Amino acid sequence: MEKLATTFTGLNFVNPFILASAPPTESKRKIMRAFDAGWGGVVTKTIGLHPVENVAGPKTIYQRASDIKPYVSRMKRKDTVSHSSWNWELISDQPLDIWLPDLKEIKANYPDRMVIASIMAGAGNDDEMENWRKLASACVDVGCDAIELNMSCPHMDRKDMGANIANDEDIIRSILNAVTGAVDVPIWVKLTPSTAKLVDAAGAAYEAGASSISLCNTFPSLPLMDPETMKFEVEVDGLVTSGGLGGLAILHQALQRVSDISKAFPDRAISGIGGIRGFREAFNFIVHGAGNLQVCTAAMEEKGSGGVGVDLIRELKHDLNDFLERKGYSSIEEFRGVARERIVEHSKVRRKSGSYNGGYSLAS
Ligand SMILES: Cc1cc2nc3c(=O)[nH]c(=O)nc-3n(C[C@H](O)[C@H](O)[C@H](O)COP(=O)(O)O)c2cc1C
Q1: When comparing pLDDT for 154 and 141, which is higher?
Q2: What is the pLDDT of residues 256-308, one digit of tens each?
Q3: What per-residue confidence (pLDDT) applies to 357?
Q4: Catalytic amino acids?
Q5: Torsion (CA) 282, 250, 263, 281 in degrees, nearest 10
């Protein structure tokens, strides 16, 4: 399956499929299991320096839809299919000094797999910039191949963290300046999809030295309330907060965000995330320009694999390889971005009267 190999942001991946920053990459045990199963890389669960304590209840729920009475709910019902995950989990509660020897051991055991350390600190003062530098340097010193800056967590109260800062181009620039000055590895920036200024934010990040944009983190959202019990499907003491929607339900929106960035910056790298459950979804990210694919919810949902998608990666690799063989492509690079020029302004699409034809022919 050598056709699956890709070079992305200067790093050699045995295949383009990696586990996103989330529970599948929260520990050494899970990451090693994922590599044994065949994943090309991992982005670690986000590592920070501030203390973390999660809510006193489930951190993630899986919501399913059914054909009969097609409502979405976490409730167990017959004949349902996956719709989405909803979570309000914070970043890793494992401190940096536990992570570091683990990361070193992982890299020593799997030198051909890419380990990208996701990190997060605050903004707005020199101490926080120093925290970004400290996190990045420590992870690179133990062998991490790249750094992903988490500027996208949708449920941070602190106004200087996560999705709250993703709109601010000055903050994006200052964090990138701090991190690129401290380490010499590719820097990926994970932005929130929940901003009207996404393309500007991505532009600021690329300009300030980001090798790639990772999109999307989960979409800010609320869990549903059950009409019978009048309770939210997940709550603590009757209370809930805005959390993040992931999984199949966000696929189309994630593709649109990736397409926007890919059209604005066709020569820059994008790692596609959001709703990938198999080859078809991955294919869609690639045709819009993504050169790397990250997966979270589908891996977490897989039963019997410890939540790292053992069957999923086998299937992804098989189906991508099969596609490349059948189409005669030597790698994903040969069809990456082919949809880019086919996403046009509404006025460029032919009208029923034929009065205006934007000029794109679908004939192959
Ligand atoms: C339970 C859970 C925890 C997550 N934690 C993080 C995190 O710590 N850092 C981060 O950048 N993204 C985090 N994410 C977001 C995922 O990495 C991913 O961007 C998102 O789930 C969309 O991908 P999916 O549709 O494949 O789930 C988390 C997602 C879930 C479901």
Answers
A1: 141
A2: 999 999 999 999 999 999 999 999 999 999 999 999 999 999 999 998 889 99
A3: 58
A4: 153
A5: 10
Q: Ligand 1 centroid to 165 CA: how many Å?
A: 17
Atom of ligand 1 nearest to the CA of 298: 26
Plot region of 232 (φ>0 → left; ψ -120 to 50 → alpha; else → beta) = beta
* Ligand 1 atom closest to residue 152's alpha carbon, by position in its atom list: 11
Q: Which of 245, 296, 312 gets mutated to test ligand 1 (max ligand atoms within 8 A of its CB)? A: 296
Q: Does ligand 1 have an atom closer than 6 angstroms to the CB of 243?
A: no
Question: Looking at domain 2-348, which of 3.30.110.40, 3.30.70.120, 3.40.109.10, 3.20.20.70 is its CATH number?
Answer: 3.20.20.70
161 lines ligand 1 (CB under 6 A): no
The larger pLDDT score, comparing residue 232 to residue 67, is at 232
**Per-residue model confidence as pLDDT tens digits over 207-264:** 999 999 999 999 999 999 999 999 999 999 999 999 999 999 999 999 999 999 999 9
In whole angstroms, give the CA distance from residue 143 to residue 120: 18
Q: Is the CB of 337 under 6 A from ligand 1?
A: no
CB of 245 closer than 8 Å to CB of 297: no
pTM for this prediction: 0.95
Q: Could you give the percent of the chain with pLDDT greater than 70?
A: 97
Q: Is the CB of 73 under 6 A from ligand 1?
A: no
Show the beta-strand stretches assigned E in the chain.
Answer: 6-8, 11-13, 17-19, 41-43, 47-48, 60-66, 80-87, 114-120, 146-151, 187-191, 212-215, 219-221, 243-246, 269-273, 292-295
pLDDT band at 182 (very low <50, low <70, confident <90, very high): very high
Q: Are 293 and 286 in contact (CB under 8 A)?
A: yes
Closest ligand 1 atom to Cα of 248: 25
